[in-house]
C-alpha cells in the first residue's frame, strides 16, 4: 500500500502529458509572466494590509515586508528551478508528484485550493468595498443589503455581496475565453495600478515626518514577526506564475525571470509605500482603518489623489482575483489529467484551448463564496496553505538534486541545499506566528482531503491504472 501512496510520475511522463489532446495554448512571454506576478501580488496587501500591519509592528513594518519578501524569494528560487525544468501546469502539485509521490502531491493540490480559490473570494469582498465607495462618490448607490455577505456587518442586515459575485463571474468568463485575452487585460490593469502607486509615492513622500518613525520597533521583534506573518498574504500569488508553465512560449528562459522579477519589484514597492505611510501618519492611527492609503492622503491634504487611488485599488484587486482564479483552474486541470479529480475538469475547449468546465465550476463557486460567506476569519487559512506549499517545493528541490543530479536544468536554484533550507525555516517561523484556530481549520481541511483521496483519487489515478495493466 505504501508503495502505491508514494508512486511518482517521471519527468518524461509529465512532459509527455503536454503533447496529448488535453493541451493548452502557449502564448506567454517574460513580460506577460512578470505582469501576471505583479497582478497577483499587488492588491489587498498595499491598499489594506499596510494599515493593519502598521498597528502590529509600527514603523518596523518595513522590516516585516522584507522578512516576508525574503521567505518568498527563497521559495521563488526553488519554484524557478522546477518551473523551467518541468514546464507543465500544476505548479508545486506537479513538482511534488515527480519527487515525493502521489499522496503528498494530492495533499498539496488540495492545500492550494485554500490559497487560490479562497483568496479570490476573500479579495472580492475587499474589492466590493472599494467599488461601492467609488460608486458612492459618483452618486450611485447600491442597496446596503446587497453590498456584504450575511452577517458581515454587525449593525446592519445584509443578504448578498452582489459586487463581489459579479466581478468574480466576469473574471470567470474572461478566463473561459482564453489566456491571450486575459493577459492583455491583466497587463493593462497592472500598468495602470503601478502608475497609481508611483503617483502616491511622488505626491506623499514630501509630507513624511521622520519623527513618526520613532520608536521604530514599538512592539519589538515579536511585533515585526507577527506583522510579517500577517502581511505574507500580500505576497501570495507569485507562485501562480509557475502554474502558467504549460502556456509559456519559452519556459526555460521566461519563467525564472517572471517569478523573480515580479517578486523583487513588488517587495520594493511594499517597503517604500509602508515607509512613507508610517512617516506621515502615526502608526496607532491606522487602528480600524480599512482604507489606509486614503487616510494618508487626507492627512497630507491631497484629497484629489484619493479618487485615483480608489481606481488603483479596484484594478489592483481585480488582477489579484484574475491570477488567483487562473492558478486554481490550472492546478485542478493538472490533477484531473492525472485522474486524481474527475476527468471532466481537464476537458479543453476546442476553440479557446482553456479548461472551460473547470473554469466555470470553480469561478462560480468562488463567486458564490464571495457573495455569501464573510471570509475574514478564514483569510489566515490562505497563508498557512501557501506557506506549506513553499516548504514542500523547497524540500522537492533538495530531493530532486539528490535523486536526479544529471537532469538538464535551464535554471538552477543557487546555494542548494542552503537556500531551500532557509526557505523552509523562514516559512516555518511564519507559520508558528499564526493563531491556533488557523491550525485547527487547516487540519480539518486536510482530513477532508485525505477522505477524498482514499475514497476516489487513489483508485482513479492514472498511475494506478498503469500499475494494474
TrEMBL record:
<dbReference type="GO" id="GO:0015171">
    <property type="term" value="F:amino acid transmembrane transporter activity"/>
</dbReference>
<feature type="transmembrane region" description="Helical">
    <location>
        <begin position="219"/>
        <end position="238"/>
    </location>
</feature>
<feature type="transmembrane region" description="Helical">
    <location>
        <begin position="304"/>
        <end position="327"/>
    </location>
</feature>
<feature type="transmembrane region" description="Helical">
    <location>
        <begin position="159"/>
        <end position="178"/>
    </location>
</feature>
<dbReference type="GO" id="GO:0016020">
    <property type="term" value="C:membrane"/>
</dbReference>
<feature type="transmembrane region" description="Helical">
    <location>
        <begin position="61"/>
        <end position="80"/>
    </location>
</feature>
<dbReference type="InterPro" id="IPR004758">
    <property type="entry name" value="AA_transporter"/>
</dbReference>
<keyword id="KW-0472">Membrane</keyword>
<keyword id="KW-0812">Transmembrane</keyword>
<dbReference type="Pfam" id="PF13520">
    <property type="entry name" value="AA_permease_2"/>
</dbReference>
<feature type="transmembrane region" description="Helical">
    <location>
        <begin position="259"/>
        <end position="284"/>
    </location>
</feature>
<dbReference type="InterPro" id="IPR002293">
    <property type="entry name" value="AA/rel_permease1"/>
</dbReference>
<feature type="transmembrane region" description="Helical">
    <location>
        <begin position="356"/>
        <end position="375"/>
    </location>
</feature>
<feature type="transmembrane region" description="Helical">
    <location>
        <begin position="411"/>
        <end position="432"/>
    </location>
</feature>
<feature type="transmembrane region" description="Helical">
    <location>
        <begin position="438"/>
        <end position="456"/>
    </location>
</feature>
<keyword id="KW-1133">Transmembrane helix</keyword>
<feature type="transmembrane region" description="Helical">
    <location>
        <begin position="28"/>
        <end position="49"/>
    </location>
</feature>
<keyword id="KW-0813">Transport</keyword>
<feature type="transmembrane region" description="Helical">
    <location>
        <begin position="190"/>
        <end position="207"/>
    </location>
</feature>
<feature type="transmembrane region" description="Helical">
    <location>
        <begin position="381"/>
        <end position="399"/>
    </location>
</feature>
<protein>
    <submittedName>
        <fullName>Amino acid permease</fullName>
    </submittedName>
</protein>
<feature type="transmembrane region" description="Helical">
    <location>
        <begin position="92"/>
        <end position="113"/>
    </location>
</feature>
Amino acid at each position: 500500500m505504501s508503495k502505491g501512496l508514494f508512486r511518482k510520475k517521471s519527468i518524461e511522463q509529465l512532459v509527455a502529458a503536454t503533447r496529448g489532446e488535453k493541451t493548452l495554448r502557449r502564448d506567454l512571454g517574460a513580460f506577460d509572466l512578470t505582469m501576471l506576478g505583479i497582478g497577483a501580488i499587488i492588491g489587498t496587501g498595499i491598499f489594506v494590509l499596510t494599515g493593519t500591519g502598521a498597528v502590529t509592528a509600527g514603523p518596523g513594518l518595513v522590516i516585516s515586508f522584507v522578512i516576508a519578501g525574503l521567505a518568498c524569494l527563497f521559495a521563488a528560487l526553488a519554484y524557478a528551478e522546477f518551473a523551467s525544468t518541468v514546464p507543465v501546469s500544476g505548479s508545486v502539485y506537479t513538482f511534488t508528484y515527480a519527487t515525493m509521490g502521489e499522496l503528498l502531491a494530492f495533499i498539496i493540490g488540495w492545500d492550494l485550493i485554500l490559497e487560490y480559490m479562497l483568496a479570490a473570494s476573500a479579495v472580492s469582498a475587499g474589492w466590493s468595498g472599494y467599488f461601492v465607495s467609488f460608486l458612492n462618490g459618483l452618486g450611485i448607490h447600491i442597496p446596503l443589503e446587497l453590498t456584504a455577505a450575511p452577517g458581515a456587518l454587525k449593525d446592519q442586515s445584509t443578504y448578498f455581496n452582489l459586487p463581489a459575485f459579479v466581478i468574480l463571474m466576469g473574471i470567470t468568463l474572461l478566463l473561459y475565453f482564453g489566456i491571450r485575452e486575459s493577459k492583455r487585460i491583466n497587463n493593462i490593469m497592472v500598468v495602470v495600478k503601478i502608475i497609481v502607486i508611483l503617483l502616491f509615492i511622488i505626491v506623499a513622500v514630501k509630507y513624511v515626518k521622520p519623527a513618526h518613525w520613532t520608536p521604530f520597533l514599538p512592539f519589538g521583534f515579536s511585533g515585526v514577526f507577527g506583522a510579517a506573518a500577517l502581511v505574507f498574504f500580500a505576497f501570495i500569488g507569485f507562485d501562480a506564475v509557475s502554474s502558467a508553465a504549460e502556456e509559456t512560449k519559452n519556459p526555460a528562459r521566461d519563467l525564472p525571470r517572471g517569478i523573480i522579477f515580479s517578486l523583487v519589484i513588488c517587495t520594493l514597492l511594499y517597503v517604500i509605500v509602508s515607509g512613507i505611510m508610517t512617516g506621515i501618519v502615526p502608526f496607532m492611527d491606522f487602528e480600524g482603518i480599512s482604507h489606509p492609503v486614503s487616510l494618508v492622503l487626507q492627512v497630507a491634504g491631497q484629497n484629489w489623489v484619493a479618487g485615483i487611488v480608489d481606481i488603483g485599488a479596484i484594478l489592483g484587486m481585480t488582477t489579484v482575483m484574475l491570477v488567483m482564479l487562473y492558478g486554481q483552474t490550472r492546478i485542478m486541470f493538472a490533477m484531473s489529467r492525472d485522474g486524481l479529480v474527475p476527468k471532466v475538469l481537464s476537458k479543453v475547449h476546442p476553440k479557446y484551448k482553456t479548461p472551460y468546465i473547470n473554469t466555470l465550476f470553480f469561478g462560480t463557486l468562488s463567486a458564490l463564496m464571495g457573495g455569501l460567506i464573510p471570509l475574514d476569519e478564514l483569510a489566515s487559512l490562505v497563508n498557512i496553505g501557501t506557506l506549506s506549499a513553499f516548504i514542500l517545493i523547497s524540500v522537492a528541490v533538495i530531493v530532486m538534486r539528490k535523486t536526479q543530479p544529471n537532469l538538464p536544468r535551464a535554471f538552477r536554484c543557487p546555494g542548494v541545499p542552503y537556500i531551500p533550507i532557509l526557505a523552509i525555516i523562514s516559512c516555518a517561523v511564519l507559520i508558528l506566528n499564526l493563531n491556533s484556530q488557523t491550525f485547527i481549520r487547516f487540519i480539518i481541511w486536510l482530513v477532508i482531503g485525505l477522505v477524498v483521496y482514499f475514497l476516489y483519487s487513489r483508485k482513479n489515478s492514472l498511475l494506478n491504472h498503469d500499475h494494474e495493466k
